[in-house]
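User: quick one, fold this
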Amino acid sequence: MVMHVRLEQTGNSQVMQLANTDPQAPGPGEVWLEQAAIGVNPLDVNQRKGDVPIALPSGLGLEGAGTVAAIGPGVTTVQVGDRVGYATGPLGGYASARLFPAERLVKLPASLSFEDAAAVLFKGITAQYLLKSTYPVGPGTRVLIYGAAGALGQLLVPWAKHLGAFVIGVVSKPQSLARARDAGCDEVLVFDADTLAAQVLEVTQGLKVDVVYDSVGRVSLQASLDSLRPRGVLVSYGATSGAPEPLAMSTLNAKGSLFVTRPSLAAHTASTQEYQQRAQDVLAAVTAGIIQPRIWQRYALADVASAHDDLQQGRSQGAIILTP
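Assistant:
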């Protein structure tokens, strides 16, 4: 039997239901994947809560790793027995086994465990496109990164440092300062919407930053805008405090001809070629020691509600994975 999580309605963590089904034969272009580890991400929580709408009923989860158990007609990119991972839809990652499009599977190096793959692919691809496409970070770039001590921040910070950036990290509480410094931040600030921009001005000796990576959303919007140099870029890619309020175009002009973007993983992995290129860059960065998977907690699939509660309440200090 196959255990999987099913979502009939949105709400708190208790709306996730465990169900059992029979294994399925893969169709054209598909594989049957037996999963060893499953990644848990903030997007999963937002979909479960209803903040990011999905068609219901639905599975949940966009990241996993395991072994190809069977292939469907026309599959040539993978073989039975291959160790693989993935970091995009279709939804349904919260399962002990599942069908998955063969072309969206990423072959894993022997040196990378299933658990580490499930902890790093989704977040790693996010860090990759943010640092290399949304705003190309390079030597001397001044960067402000929210959530510097979190699972994604622990990938963004060292990768930005490797690219030559001066990194100012932002954390939500003093207890996270040391973890952000250990990730490689040059400076770390505890978030206060009223004082953050002034602190950034002081740290940069009046220059402000070139780019802000803001995963907080509503409560941080103005502080982020005020931390940018003229023609700087606000990358608003998360909403842990809620979606940002609508922004008047005149505000961008008044604050120095600023740019604002709201990127998504889906838009940066829409084609198989682009998706595979970004995934291979992540795997290469792991192999080179530029970034490291950092697993904070492992939960059995049956304890998925506890995993969501820890992530939603800000208790996690790194990646969370589920094990079937």
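User: anything notable?
Assistant: The chain has a mean pLDDT of 96.
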